[in-house]
Amino acid sequence: QAQLVESGGGLVQPGGSLRLSCAASGFTLNYDAIGWFRQAPGKERERVSCISSRGGMTYYLSSVKGRFTISRDNAKNTVYLQMNSLSPEDTAVYYCAVSKTKFCSSDPRNFDSWGQGTQVTVSS
């Protein structure tokens, strides 16, 4: 069964770092743009970052630019999100998903094959 599995979330203090992983099983990610999204309680899901199929193009939400880095290892069929200088405002469930259009879009409706999500909590 084709699915994405996120991991790497947890509880971290403000200013700390986490690296999220998005691993695919049952299919290859190598030809797809992959997005990382997050959803905090009571808020809409928003795209945090996106990476093109070969990694040449990356996109970031303005509030995470300079702090988050998206990357991919196609040999491992995995996409990563390195998150540094975390703040309480980054607290959310983080999801990865596959672009339906092969391109990066900011609209979650253009993505599918969503993983189950991984909780990131930034708190002292």
What key attributes describe this structure?
124 residues; 47% strand; 4-stranded antiparallel β-sheet
Record the SSE blueprint.
Blueprint: E1 3-7, E2 10-12, E3 18-25, E4 34-39, E5 46-51, E6 58-60, E7 68-73, E8 78-83, E9 92-99, E10 111-112, E11 118-122
Parallel strand pairs: 2-11
Antiparallel strand pairs: 1-3, 3-8, 4-5, 4-9, 5-6, 7-8, 9-10, 9-11
Helix content percent band? under 10%
- The shape, in one word, is globular
Please describe the biggest sheet, giving its number of strands, its sense, and whether it closes into a barrel.
Answer: 7 strands, mixed
How much β-strand is present in the residues? over 45%
Distance between the termini: 39 Å
Task: Please tally the β strands and state the result.
Answer: 11
Classify the secondary structure makeup into a structural class.
mainly beta
Q: What order do the SSEs take from the amino end to the carboxyl end, as H and E?
A: EEEEEEEEEEE
- The unreliable regions are none
The pLDDT mean sits at 94
Q: Tell me the Rg in angstroms.
A: 13 Å
Q: Count the helices. How many?
A: 0
